[in-house]
Specification:
By secondary structure, this protein is α/β, with parallel strands linked by helices. The chain folds into two domains: 121 residues, Immunoglobulin-like, CATH 2.60.40.1180; 364 residues, Glycosidases (TIM Barrel, Alpha-Beta Barrel). 27% of the residues lie in helices and 26% in strands. It is built from ten helices and 26 strands. The structure holds alpha-L-arabinofuranose (AHR). The site of alpha-L-arabinofuranose (AHR) has 10 residues, from loops.
């Protein structure tokens, strides 16, 4: 089949905030313990952090990492994770029914983030705790010295404040599963008062208020309207979460789900405008899509296993093994964020290591890249610059979730400084290859084109410890320049990155 795409230098969507390629690490399963932290591992650094994992995270080039949860944060006492390690308490984590040793806390995570070349995005507990614990944490993390909490940080070995800019006001407070779940009015009031207290400390901090955990939530989108009516003038972002599933093994339907994501974003954009108008507010609120990923491969089994265990420390949990089909899905999700980058300024893949993650580790053994590592890495490294409003002419199909789903899912980014145009293209047609003609207007003449392809004949192909390179990108040679056009042929069900210079 054929697809014609036109990109014009003046038809732009938005500059892309690099934090669109953020990540997330929760005290959950083996994300922290035997994920990033394993003092006995041969690659461990002086802080007990696995260097092999740090290298893989650095290569992903993820500019922010949200921490420490997730559901975990809603019953977390951050003070448990400071001071001498051997004096820290072991606590029962109510979110995941596990034991938390607190061997990793804010100091260790901050050092790790520094090594991994990522900035911290911290969440405060508005579930079991409230304003006071939140403002103490902000003071501990960001105040230079001369106060109780900042001096305690200094005593604990860190003289300089970390100067964390981005703070989440709780996590998924709309979810009945959340420890300390609240109604939209209860949460909105608490989030607003907490935001005011944090702003009294530093009004330059960026604050994220909780939106919906999923567009399927019965309270969506009234939740957003009520919460923003309480908080609009005190916050910068409203968070959204969404996980993608394919229990039915229906690839066409699965790959249409980003259309639902797009509608979700659009609806919340409408709610933001409504509340802004109603309040005659001057400030803008944007979206922080701070949890997204494919999550279904191990989900039901995990729920059963959790019923059978006591309070294990760092058990195997949420360790989805991703396949080639998920490469296509992650590519389409990231394309949606790029096309919505005027509204979605921040997004975090959930999560980063072992727990629904692009990076896996074996305790004492190697670390390797899951299939989804690659589309995330490509977007994060090469999807920086200005998002382009592309005109796309291509065949489409009807799915239950949306009609007229284009077989070609494509996003384009112009990096004016580097002088590059990068297109991320997913062929959602499983029957036919696709000839793509990219017409480039107003960018000057193209000198070179590179095509990188991810393709596997088996949609269920995975990367494992024993076969870590089963699904991986391959450079192609067939892409051609003809005048102002680029011609690229891509196989059925495939992911491509096309770079023009
Ligand atoms: O990422 C796994 C969990 O999904 C998070 O803890 C929670 O916020 C969401 O429900």
């Amino acid at each position: 089949m054929e697809a014609r795409v036109t990109a014009h230098a003046r038809y732009t969507i938005s500059d892309i905030d690099k934090r669109l390629y953020g990540s997330f690490l929760e005290h959950l399963g083996r994300a922290v313990y035997t994920g990033i932290y394993e003092p006995d591992h041969p690659s461990a650094d002086e802080n007990g952090m696995r260097r092999d994992v740090i290298d893989l995270v650095r290569d992903l080039d993820t500019p922010i990492c949200r921490y420490p949860g997730g559901n975990f944060v809603s019953a977390y006492n951050w003070e448990d994770g400071i001071g001498p390690r051997d004096e820290r308490p072991t606590r029962l984590d109510l979110a995941w029914h596990t034991s938390e040793s607190n061997h990793v806390g804010i100091h260790e995570f901050a050092d790790w983030a520094d090594s991994a070349n990522t900035e911290m995005m911290l969440a405060v507990n508005l579930g079991s705790r409230g304003l006071d614990a939140a403002r103490n944490l902000v003071e501990y993390v960001n105040h230079s010295g001369g106060s109780y909490w900042s001096d305690l940080r200094r005593k604990n070995g860190r003289a300089e404040p970390w100067d964390v800019k981005l703070w989440c006001l709780g996590n998924e407070m709309d979810g009945p599963w959340q420890v300390g779940h609240k109604s939209a009015d209860e949460y909105g009031h608490l989030a607003n008062e907490t935001a005011k207290a944090i702003r009294a400390f530093d009004d330059k901090l960026e604050l994220v208020v909780c939106g919906s955990s999923h567009s399927n939530m019965p309270t969506f989108p009234q939740w957003e309207a009520t919460v923003l009516e309480h908080t609009y003038e005190q916050v910068d972002y409203i968070s959204l979460h969404m996980y993608f599933e394919n229990y039915e093994k229906n690839t066409a339907e699965y790959l249409a789900l980003p259309e639902k994501l797009d509608r979700y974003i659009g609806t919340v954009g409408g709610v933001i405008d409504y509340v802004k108008g109603k309040k005659r507010a001057k400030n803008d609120v944007r979206i922080s899509f701070d949890e997204w990923n494919v999550w279904y491969h191990e989900r039901k089994q995990d729920a059963e296993r959790m019923k059978t265990w006591g309070w294990p420390h760092a058990p195997v949990l949420l360790e989805d093994i991703y396949n080639f089909e998920d490469v296509l899905q992650v590519g389409c999700i990231l394309n949606t964020f790029i096309r919505r980058s005027d509204l979605v300024r921040i997004a975090c893949i959930a999560q980063l290591v072992n727990v629904i993650a692009p990076i896996m580790t074996a305790p004492g053994g190697p670390a390797w890249k899951q299939t989804i590592y690659y589309p995330f890495q490509f977007a994060s490294r090469y999807g920086r610059g200005t998002a382009l409003q592309l005109d796309v002419a291509c065949g489409s199909y009807n799915a239950d979730v949306a009609a007229n789903v284009s077989y070609l899912d494509i996003a384009g980014v112009h990096d004016g400084d580097a002088g590059t145009l990068t297109f991320f293209a997913v062929n959602r047609n499983g029957e036919e290859p696709m000839d793509i003609s990219l017409s480039l207007e107003g960018f000057g003449s193209a000198k070179s084109v590179e095509h990188t392809l991810i393709k596997h004949d088996d949609l269920e192909a995975t990367n494992t410890r024993l076969n870590p390179d089963n699904v991986k990108p391959e450079a192609q040679t067939g892409a051609k320049i003809a005048g102002n056009s680029i011609h690229v042929s891509v196989p059925a069900y495939s992911y491509s990155m096309i770079t023009v210079q």
